[in-house]
Amino acid sequence: MLPEGRLHRCLLPILMFMLLVSAGVSTSIGDKEVGIDLESKDVAASIEVQELTSSKFNYVTTVDARNPNASTRNGKLDCTVKDLTLGSRIECPVNLTRDFVINLSFRADGFIEQKRGAKLFSYRQPIYRPTESYRLEARLPTGAALDSSNSTSQVISPSNYSTETNGRRISVIWRTQPDLGDSLSFAVLFNEFTGTGPPKEKDGFPLEIAGLVFLLSMITVAAGILVWFLTREEPQKISEIRDDLDEGENELLDVLQEEDGECLQKEIVDSTGHSKAKISGTVSELVEKDIVEKEKDGRSNRLKLADEYRF
């Protein structure tokens, strides 16, 4: 018998083929955001539907889903769960066909398994409908920490992630722009402390001393930031250079300032109504003048005002 992980990898292409055939690629999704709480086992999803070509909205997950709840702007939906060979399909009758958002939540198991003394969160998402952007947030249990001691395994995969914390829980967030037919795979290796309190020592080092070292480190960092703030040069004002720029360059800077100095190039195209070619040429001029910085971000470019023009 194949191990569960290998069995999932073998069944996933079959599931993908069945989904592509049954869902129909003409149904299209804008932004899809999924949040998984590994403590409560709750899953919440917000799906922006651009076009729906059937009377039902289907949500497919590779875990066993239960207790679904869903709603649109027209109210609550009456959803059902059907078991698949790998995971579940949630079916929700919908009387909308274009430009609406479905908010979906359900409970699920099967996200976490033991691996080499740590816990491994893993999740797969087949992209069986055209989807512009996908965001996944995995919220670790209270007190859990990333397994930085494991040198033989990648702690977080894929590597295009960010983390957030409220002091008690860590969230790992991925953002991607998938292609139709992709099978997205996410993983986090972490440790979860149990019992009545935290461990008294870590690798033979008393936690009281470790806490003091951490506090002193934070004070040092804060002092460094304060020194930088007091001695930094004042940014040059955009207004001082506008007379040297043409109308198109000034219009692009207006959009960047409205977006706090940073946005995607495609957002400027949408905001100004100019062609991609015109905006691309204007961006190149501003980059050459060291006023704007450009870096690749998915299928677009992320534009930022240069540091000397930002507060």
Short description:
The protein has 311 residues and is of the alpha+beta class. The chain has helices spanning 4-23, 207-231, 247-258, 265-272, 276-288; strands spanning 28-37, 42-51, 56-61, 64-72, 75-77, 80-83, 88-93, 98-109, 112-115, 118-126, 131-139, 145-146, 156-157, 161-165, 170-176, 183-191, 201-202, 205-206, 262-264, 292-297, 300-305. The chain folds into three domains: 4-191, Immunoglobulin-like, CATH 2.60.40; 202-231; 238-309, Winged helix-like DNA-binding domain superfamily/Winged helix DNA-binding domain (Arc Repressor Mutant, subunit A, Orthogonal Bundle).
Q: How would you describe this protein?
A:
The chain has 311 residues and is α+β, with helices and mostly antiparallel strands. The chain folds into 3 domains: 4-191, Immunoglobulin-like (Sandwich), CATH 2.60.40; 202-231; 238-309, Winged helix-like DNA-binding domain superfamily/Winged helix DNA-binding domain (Arc Repressor Mutant, subunit A). 25% of the residues lie in helices and 41% in strands. It has 5 helices and 21 strands. It has helices at residues 4-23, 207-231, 247-258, 265-272, 276-288, and strands spanning 28-37, 42-51, 56-61, 64-72, 75-77, 80-83, 88-93, 98-109, 112-115, 118-126, 131-139, 145-146, 156-157, 161-165, 170-176, 183-191, 201-202, 205-206, 262-264, 292-297, 300-305. Strands 5-4-8-2-1-11-15-14 form an 8-stranded mixed beta sheet, with no helix packed on it. A hairpin with a 2-residue loop joins strand 9 and strand 10. Helix 4 (265-272) packs across helix 5 (276-288). The termini are far apart.
